Amino acid sequence: MDEKKKLKNKLLSVFFYILMPLFILIVWKIAALSGYIKPYTMPTPEKVIETTGEILRNGQLMSNILASVCRVLEGFVIALILALILGIGIGLSKKLEIFTEITFQILKPIPPIAWIPLAIIWFGIGESSKIFIIVLGAFFPILLNVIDGIKNIDPKYLELEKVYEVKKIKFIKGVILPGALPYIMTGIRVGLGNAWVCVVAAEMIAATKGVGYMLTDGRNLSRPDLVILGMLIIGIVGKIMDDILKKISKKIIKWN
């Protein structure tokens, strides 16, 4: 009986999980059939599926997704390393916090997309400008969460270094990182989400490959089916990346 109840609850959960996407799909289909939406402004779901099959067969879909994911991972890793080093330094040093505070407070509200013109002037339209924008997008969420995580560690643990004269590296590995880990993982998730948004924006400005390039290509060719497919890919890949990171985060925090 319990097994049947569990199965029923699971099926209900799946149903409610997909209910809203199904509703949107039905409304979209009805609007397309009724002629309320013109085909040149909004294609039918079938047309988007047809386009998906078309670019899957010619290899463009996976090629564009892979290009964007590789850029995101490269920029994200750079941002993570920089944010961890600076965040730990600022979290442990009041002098460094004061020294960097006003600079970061001014830079933090500037959207990464606003840096695109300067990035192109500085680095050209190659990979470096895109990576620069991704690094900016991922950096601040990770940095701020690392600092907050350290600030929220019980002060008595921070005194251990002075009392027992523990080496700085050992202290960071044994006390600081484990203590701040929940905050760090939150920052990593937000940072990765920002990195994915930034890569799409950067690719829309100057790229010959990537999901953002797909959107620009669709706009230039007046192909809304390609634009919608690109938007769906952005959402789906972004969710997959966040889900993977969420599972990793839970396991790491549980183990810690």
From TrEMBL:
The chain crosses the membrane at residues 12-37, 72-92, 104-125, 131-150, 171-192, 226-245. GO terms for biological process: alkanesulfonate transmembrane transport. GO terms for cellular component: plasma membrane. It is found in: Cell membrane. Keywords: Cell membrane, Membrane, Transmembrane, Transmembrane helix, Transport. Residues 65-245 form the ABC transmembrane type-1 domain. It is a multi-pass membrane protein. The keyword Cell membrane applies. PANTHER family: ABC TRANSPORTER PERMEASE PROTEIN MJ0413-RELATED, ALKANE SULFONATE ABC TRANSPORTER-RELATED, MEMBRANE SUBUNIT. Belongs to the binding-protein-dependent transport system permease family. This is Putative aliphatic sulfonates transport permease protein SsuC. It comes from Clostridium butyricum E4 str. BoNT E BL5262. The lineage of its organism: Bacteria, Bacillati, Bacillota, Clostridia, Eubacteriales.
